[in-house]
User: Which sequence fits this backbone?
């Protein structure tokens, strides 16, 4: 890699301050690049400024930025970070997303199974970068008189946001499970459904959109993180749960299996609330099963440490800027 600091343009389709996956990822990557000694400009769209490297998050939504950068800098590297929407939908059906693939120098995905969605010709240029996380400051522990399960997801159809509430209704009366759901309602109908659910389901509380620090504290004080999504590119909230030593229960989707492994014990079938209720009930009442979840998550934790993510990005930048490139 060339000597001296790089000028990096980081394009993210969500505002950098956004309290969503893209915003969190963009802020963390910008921090990593600065720790590596580089100059970083984060912008929603590429504005035409000088740069040694473009790092673009999202193939379809950053397509115009990728196209403009390539026209201005035909030889400069473009690192395209593929989101879940890219991997499991857009690159298969959208011309703009496919053109972004053609223009990119290399690709970043957030879990190993995402690589399988890329056309064969692109896979050799694809890097897996696990999103890192650290626990929130201070100490936190679950309350002893309950079994709080946290869902950290905006209310969107792809998150299947009320599946947890449906499963909680199926638990026996003696269960102490309580679903605490933090996330903004991106559709008013889903907000109405969440409010109606709270009115009739004592096990479910929708907390709305929390500041990031509050959401992290809520996670750290919970017994389980629950991911009910239909699809994910590689949820950063799983990294955050592992950093907090909070075991995970997730729908069996590639985005979670690619992070947690094929043999992870805490999966349920997408959309199956009865199966989810069984897993939650077992985690609550069977200490051996809960330890199995905890032990599996503890073994995975080193994959998501900040130093490892920084090393991955250092290697990617060195590769795309090597003289033999």
Assistant:
């Amino acid at each position: 890699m060339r000597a001296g600091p790089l000028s990096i343009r980081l394009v993210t389709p969500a505002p950098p301050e956004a309290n969503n996956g893209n915003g969190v990822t963009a802020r963390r990557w910008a921090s990593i690049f600065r720790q590596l000694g580089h100059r970083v400009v984060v912008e929603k769209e590429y504005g035409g400024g000088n740069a040694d490297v473009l790092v673009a998050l999202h193939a379809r939504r950053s397509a115009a930025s990728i196209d403009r950068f390539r026209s201005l800098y035909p030889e400069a590297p473009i690192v395209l970070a593929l989101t879940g929407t890219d991997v499991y939908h857009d690159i298969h059906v959208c011309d703009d997303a496919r053109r972004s693939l053609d223009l990119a120098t290399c690709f970043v995905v957030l879990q190993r199974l995402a690589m399988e969605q890329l056309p064969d010709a692109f896979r050799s240029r694809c890097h897996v970068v696990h999103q890192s996380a650290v626990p929130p400051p201070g100490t936190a522990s679950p309350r002893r008189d309950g079994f709080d399960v946290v869902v950290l997801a905006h209310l969107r159809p792809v998150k299947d946001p009320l599946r947890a509430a449906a499963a909680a209704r199926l638990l026996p009366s003696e269960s102490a499970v309580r679903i605490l759901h933090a996330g903004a309602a991106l559709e008013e109908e889903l907000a109405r459904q969440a409010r109606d659910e709270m009115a009739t389901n004592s096990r479910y509380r929708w907390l709305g959109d929390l500041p990031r620090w509050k959401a992290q504290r809520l996670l750290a004080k919970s017994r389980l993180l629950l991911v009910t999504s239909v699809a994910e590119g590689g949820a950063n909230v799983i990294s955050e749960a592992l950093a907090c030593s909070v075991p995970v229960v997730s729908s069996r989707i590639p985005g979670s299996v690619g992070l947690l492994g094929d043999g992870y014990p805490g999966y349920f079938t997408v959309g199956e609330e009865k199966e989810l209720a069984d897993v939650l009930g077992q985690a609550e009442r069977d200490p051996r099963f809960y330890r199995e979840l905890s032990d599996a998550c503890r073994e995975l934790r080193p994959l998501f440490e900040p130093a490892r993510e920084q090393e991955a990005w250092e290697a990617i930048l060195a590769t795309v800027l090597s003289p033999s490139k």
In short: The chain has a mean pLDDT of 94. Residues 7-131+305-320 form a domain with the Rossmann fold fold (CATH 3.40.50.2000). The radius of gyration is 20 Å. The chain has two domains: 7-131+305-320, 147-304.
